[in-house]
Write a structure and sequence with these properties.
7-stranded mixed β-sheet, 4-stranded antiparallel β-sheet, 191 residues
Length: 191
C-alpha cells in the first residue's frame, strides 16, 4: 500500500523582544535596525525613556486567533504607552491590560477575526500580515541603582480557531526578554 501523507496546518507563534529606541545616551546592541528588534540597552540612566518592541510572528501554516500578550514590568521601570499594529502597517485595536490580565490583539474590530495570517512563506524579515508589533514605552525610575540590569520578559498565547469554537485550547505561551543595564557611576575627589 502507498502511504498517505497528511499535512497538519496550525499557527506557530514566535516572540522576539528588544529595545527599539531610547532618548538617553545608552547603546542598543544589536542595533534596532537588525530585524527582528532584539537588542538590549546598556548604559541607561535614571529618567531615560525606553521603547521596547515585541515582534510576534506566525511561522505556522494557519491563522492565529485570540492572541494575548503579557508583559511583566520589573521594578525600576514604569510603562505607560502601548501601541499595536501588523507589520504591514494596519493598526490593531486591543482590550485588556498588557501589564496585568493580558492584552488581547484585535484585527478588524472583532475578536472573532484571525489576528495573524498564516505565514507568507518567509520566516523572519521582511514581515507582513503574519506579524504583529507591540511597542511599549517605559521610563527608567529616578531611584535606580548603578550597574543593575533590569530584565523585562513578555509572553504570548494564541488559539488555532476563533474565540468561542468548542473544544479549542490555548497554545502554551512563548516568551522572550530584553534588558536595560543602568550605567555605573564613578566618584572623583579633588583637593
Amino acid at each position: 500500500e502507498t502511504p498517505v501523507q497528511i499535512q497538519v496546518r496550525a499557527p506557530a507563534l514566535t516572540m522576539t523582544k528588544g529595545v527599539l529606541s531610547t532618548n538617553g545616551a545608552g547603546t542598543i546592541a544589536p542595533p534596532a535596525t537588525t530585524l527582528p528588534v532584539n537588542g538590549n540597552l546598556g548604559n541607561a540612566d535614571a529618567g531615560d525613556q525606553v521603547v521596547y518592541r515585541l515582534t510576534i510572528e506566525n511561522r505556522g501554516g494557519a491563522p492565529a486567533y485570540d492572541v494575548v500578550v503579557n508583559d511583566m514590568v520589573p521594578a525600576g521601570l514604569s510603562c505607560t504607552t502601548v501601541t499595536a499594529q501588523l507589520a504591514s502597517g494596519t493598526a490593531l485595536t486591543t482590550s485588556g491590560n498588557l501589564f496585568t490580565t493580558g492584552l488581547t490583539l484585535i484585527r478588524g474590530g472583532s475578536a472573532a477575526n484571525a489576528v495573524l495570517d498564516a505565514n507568507d512563506g518567509t520566516l523572519g524579515a521582511p514581515f507582513g500580515s503574519d506579524t504583529a508589533y507591540v511597542d511599549v514605552t517605559c521610563n527608567v525610575a529616578a531611584t535606580v541603582l548603578p550597574g543593575i540590569t533590569h530584565i523585562n520578559t513578555a509572553s504570548v498565547t494564541w488559539k488555532p480557531q476563533p474565540v468561542g469554537t468548542p473544544g479549542v485550547e490555548t497554545f502554551p505561551p512563548v516568551s522572550d526578554d530584553a534588558s536595560v543595564t543602568i550605567r555605573n557611576v564613578a566618584l572623583t575627589k579633588s583637593i
